[in-house]
Amino acid sequence: MIRFALIFALAALPVFSAAAPKTSADAKVTFNEHIAPIVFNNCASCHRPGQAGPFSLLSYGDVSKRAQLIRAVTRSRYMPPWHAAPNYGSFADERRLTDEEIELIGKWVEGGMPQGDAAKLPAPPDLPQGWQFGEPDLIVEMEQPYRVPADGSDIYRNFVAAIGTKEEKWVRAIEFRPGARSVMHHSLFKADTSGKARKIDARDEEPGYSGMDAGIRGLVNLGGWAVGGNTRVFPQESPKRLPPNADFIFQSHFHPSGKVETEVSAVGVYFTDKPATRTSIGFQIPPLYGRGADIDIPPGESSFTIRERFTLPAAIELYTVTPHAHYIGKSFKGWAVLPDGEEVPLIHVPDWDFAWQDSYIYAEPLRLPAGTTMHAEIVYDNSAENPHNPHNPPKRVTWGLSSVEEMGSLIFNGLAVREEDTQAIRAEYRKLQRRHVAQAAEQAKKRRRTVRRSGTSGGE
Ligand code: HEC
């Protein structure tokens, strides 16, 4: 799917190399002076041994060997991967080349890829080996490897692992390391103090068990990871509480890749001595990953749109926004309308790519006053022209957990500006959730009726 998209991007690019005039200015662009700093700063974090990139980009040889492809993927902005539109919300660690940098790469390739003066080569990037966030205070690893078959449908499975901490701890960050990157779609982290998860796991020989929370109450939510994701850092004043004597649960979603893979996930956990002084608030627009948003997309429809809004009863500071949809998601837009009518951009992902489920961290916590209405608009493209469409020819697609069904929401995390307003914001959000639970039931009923009438099996 991804390759397919890239071929499109390549096909759209004119080929200059032979015809481009070699002016003296072009000839001056060298690897050592101009290209190495760009690649070291923007590519090497992933393109080096042990990281997500499929090859290293650390030397003249690495880069010149793939120069044409690198020129194409930087020009199309396929690389570095970053899907939020510029100048619409300001985010930490934006992965984006400037127009000048892209032009320099082009000129260097057209100029015959000179290596240049060795004295100008910057020192190799000083990037952490192993854990990106430094040596963790605690490493929790799946107790048994899990074999992901070559094909078949998506797998949702829970794996229990001992944590071993005997006192209450406060978690400031969690870093996830998948064992088999090609099949790991996402993993949610929970802690279980009831011992039930371990009992359910022991019912059969196979590692783990299926079913979301398997009816276990009181699981502690510790965040999660999805493809393209970074270390999950919690706001300083709001670390996550890890209760004593708990088991860790990896709630993982695999998408078979065509090849048998063996998964052993691990997390690195980083503690802080300072307990939380503020309570984090997580909410989605629309709630429930869009279960009540009437996602029922006819085959061929190229801009099916869902919309929802949420009005804040009290001031909030937003820390992160995470757009979530599956393959035929096309774009996301989030914005806020302040009580005085001013519009504040929250996020715009004009060209959604399922493979990159980034959490976007606001460069500065984004403060929205009481009475602000937050809006979300999510568009889906279920046409045959969408190269990401898993169905060929396109089929009716409805809401569902599998990645060939759809979901959609903007997931926000924040803190009430005044801690005592936390409950008011949560209560207002619960109202929105309840409305969507009721809508979801209505919509499911309606869908069953239309399926019966048309005599089709619907959108599996
Ligand atoms: C956040 C991690 C990350 C960063 C940063 C990154 N890449 Fe990649 N790159 C990947 C991954 C993962 C793949 C393989 C999957 C894919 O093609 O999307 C990839 C694939 C590629 C490919 C192969 C495309 C193909 O289909 O064969 C090229 C070329 C490439 N990257 C160049 C770059 C360059 C040049 C930069 C910096 C300007 C860069 N990448 C920055 C993660 C990254």
Structure explained in plain terms:
It is a single chain. This protein has 460 residues and is α+β, with helices and mostly antiparallel strands. The protein has 3 domains: 2-120, no CATH class; 138-272, Jelly Rolls, CATH 2.60.120.230; 280-454, Jelly Rolls (Sandwich). The chain has 8 helices and 21 strands. It has helices at residues 2-11, 24-27, 31-42, 60-65, 67-75, 99-110, 196-201, 422-454, and strands at 138-141, 146-148, 155-162, 169-177, 184-192, 220-226, 232-233, 240-242, 247-254, 261-263, 266-272, 280-285, 296-297, 304-311, 316-325, 329-337, 343-349, 360-368, 373-380, 397-398, 408-416. The strands form 6 sheets. Strands 1, 4, 7, 8 and 11 form a 5-stranded antiparallel β-sheet that branches. Strands 3-9-5-6 form a 4-stranded antiparallel β-sheet. A 4-stranded antiparallel β-sheet has the order 12-21-15-18. Helix 5 (67-75) runs antiparallel to helix 6. It is globular and about 65 Å long. 35% of the residues are buried. The model is unreliable at 1-23 and 455-460 (pLDDT under 50). Bound molecules: heme C (HEC).
What is this structure's SSE topology?
Blueprint: H1 2-11, H2 24-27, H3 31-42, H4 60-65, H5 67-75, H6 99-110, E1 138-141, E2 146-148, E3 155-162, E4 169-177, E5 184-192, H7 196-201, E6 220-226, E7 232-233, E8 240-242, E9 247-254, E10 261-263, E11 266-272, E12 280-285, E13 296-297, E14 304-311, E15 316-325, E16 329-337, E17 343-349, E18 360-368, E19 373-380, E20 397-398, E21 408-416, H8 422-454
Antiparallel strand pairs: 1-11, 2-10, 3-9, 4-7, 4-8, 4-11, 5-6, 5-9, 12-21, 13-20, 14-19, 15-18, 15-21, 16-17, 16-19
The structure holds heme C (HEC).
Heme C (HEC) is lined by residues 2-3, 6, 42-43, 45-47, 52-54, 66, 69-70, 73-74, 79-81, 95, 97.
